[in-house]
Amino acid sequence: MNTMFPWRPPLEENWAARVAELEAIAAAGEMPDYAATRSVANQQLGPRQQLRIERLGKRLGKIKGNGFTRIELGLLGNRTLSYLCDPLGAAGLARGLLVSAHEAPYDGVAGFAFSAKNCFERGLDAVLAVLDESALHGERPLLDRVAEDEAVLEAERIASAIAEAARSKTGCPAIIATLPPCIQLTSADIATPGSTARFRLRVNMMLGDGAAEGRWLMWDQAALASRIGIERWFDPVAYHSAKVPFNVELCPLAADNIASLLAAKSGKSARALVLDLDNTLWGGVIGDDGLAGIRIGQNSAEGEAFVAFQNFVLGLRERGVVLAVCSKNTDAVAREPFRRHPDMLLKEEHIAVFQANWDDKPQIFVRSPKNSVWVWSHFPTLTTILPNANASDGSFRSCPQLR
């Protein structure tokens, strides 16, 4: 199936029947089960399934009920953002949110930021501002450093005005999108004052600094566009004909990325990472291969990749993510690499909870996709990560659940 969400659990065979049950409950004016709704939204949806979840999200937004966190989101931009509204509702369901998006009038940035008028007629929880380079005005003759500095200052003035207007008019924070990268003419563009590539990079650094100072929140559109590919992200035909800032077909993926930010803002981001051991933290099976037989460290490319993965996991711990181990294994054997292997970066003191036993229960997370899906089916509100092959292939770095 063609899906934009390959990291999610595969689509269940009875997915359509489950959604039909939820739709019937919603049609009766009642809120369906929270876990059941999240589970059908958080699967490898194709285009048809995506549209169905979008309709479900729209309907649930009108029903009162508990479980989901409601988010009223204003969309502000100098291009058309209406294509994002329904995908945001679907992406929210997968993360425990009921997102209702409200687009400001087309090109209403200046009116919202610099006048007393409020283009949003309802209370909001956040205002997402997605601007392209044309909204930031500043003239930038090529090779003119002074003009470039003034243009960046003008961009900062606009961002500050939007953030202040969001606070004063709606009582909520502004989320300001970074500028996507452009296709460079030469490799010297970043070093050329006044070039588009250099200007966008400087504006994005300014937005990052402002977010670090607490002046606004930031949606890193640039990072998402880079991961997807600039030529795929930007659709020049749609941009000029429909004033769409990025490829409409990628709206579900953009919405999922934005929803992860809204979930973090609402306290619904992941707080713990539960790790398997064999072929996840090292290559091989510790119970069969022994301490000397597992592959980790500088003796092989695979071993180095597992060290890189452990370093990545430690970085998550530094950000406040609690680490745990849950493995089908003998406890003493499972702990041996943490205690004795010289190339292990992860140590026992880094692990908050260490569970290694042979119990056949959903609390024991194992590496195979079949059993990972089984765990997810028991606890659909948990995020089950299914890397492409194993941690050594580097796929963990592009896995959205880890971010």
TrEMBL record:
The keyword DNA damage does not apply. InterPro entries: HAD_sf (IPR023214), HAD_SF_ppase_IIIC (IPR010033), SGNH_hydro_sf (IPR036514). It comes from the Bacteria. One of its GO terms (molecular function) is hydrolase activity, acting on ester bonds. Keywords: Plasmid. Transmembrane segments: none annotated. This is HAD-IIIC family phosphatase. It comes from Rhizobium meliloti (strain 1021).
